[in-house]
Design brief:
alpha+beta; 4-stranded antiparallel beta sheet; about 20% strand
Length: about 240
């Protein structure tokens, strides 16, 4: 079977500094708190269960996860957080999608626009690049001797996955957004741990930038990811092996 993701695009994020990792935990903590508000029970709140799986795949400590859930009301207070998506372009027509959680739309829109424009990009209208991506559930699993290709094929069929790919050291399993929770639960029931598990925007095709343009593009992505309101940034640029 064939897929659209690139494991090294995920793998490149794994060597983050402690400070960057803490920032990731903070963002996921906010996502957990938003998902838990109104129903902190992951057994009956599938969205919360999916975010918990994402947190665990990011190696977020269980204590941090539980703290975010327990303090959901306190963390959010009276703030009304909105999930907003911005689309735009980086250098050389590269496509960028920015997912945010914000209590101040004007602030977030301005910050995202500024981060893009300072690095040769520009914010576009809704739908300007999202047609280049597919919304997919993505589960990345380490490839081991015990979990061979035949077993993985059997698991994917039983989990009703849409597709999967085999890389050197991982399997990438793709589901529909609607089928993600059920597939995740299936693999968890088999005792499989995840390197990544979330619903995300997967580019249909990747583009390659020369070193100069890639440096500017990477700077833009860093600026976007540093924004407190930004949860995730998706793009269609191939990350060079040396990165």
């Amino acid at each position: 079977m064939s897929g659209h993701s690139k494991w090294h695009n995920i793998q490149a994020k794994k060597g983050k500094t402690d400070a960057a990792r803490a920032a990731v935990f903070t963002k996921i903590g906010r996502e957990l708190a938003v998902a838990a508000k109104g129903n902190p029970n992951p057994d009956t709140n599938s969205k919360l269960a999916d975010v918990i799986a994402k947190a665990k795949a990011a190696n977020m400590p269980n204590a941090n996860i539980q703290r975010s859930i327990d303090k959901a009301a306190g963390v959010l207070g009276d703030k009304d957080f909105k999930e907003l998506t911005y689309e735009g372009y980086g250098v050389a027509g590269s496509a960028v999608i920015v997912k945010t959680l914000t209590d101040n739309v004007n602030r977030t829109a301005g910050d995202v626009r500024a981060a893009m424009s300072k690095c040769g990009g520009q914010m576009g209208n809704a739908g300007c690049v999202s047609y280049m991506f597919d919304n997919k559930g993505v589960i990345v699993i380490e490839r081991t001797v015990a979990l061979d290709e035949d077993t993985m094929m059997e698991y994917c069929l039983e989990a009703e996955a849409e597709d999967y790919t085999v890389e050197d050291d991982v399997y990438e399993v793709f589901t529909t957004p609607e089928g993600f929770s059920a597939a995740r639960k299936y693999f968890e029931g088999k005792g499989v741990s995840f390197l990544e598990a979330e619903i995300k925007m997967v580019p249909q095709n990747y583009i390659t930038l020369d070193s100069e343009k890639y440096a500017m593009f990477a700077k833009m992505i860093d600026k976007l990811e540093e924004l407190d309101d930004v949860q995730t940034v998706y793009h269609n640029v191939e990350i060079p092996d040396e990165e």
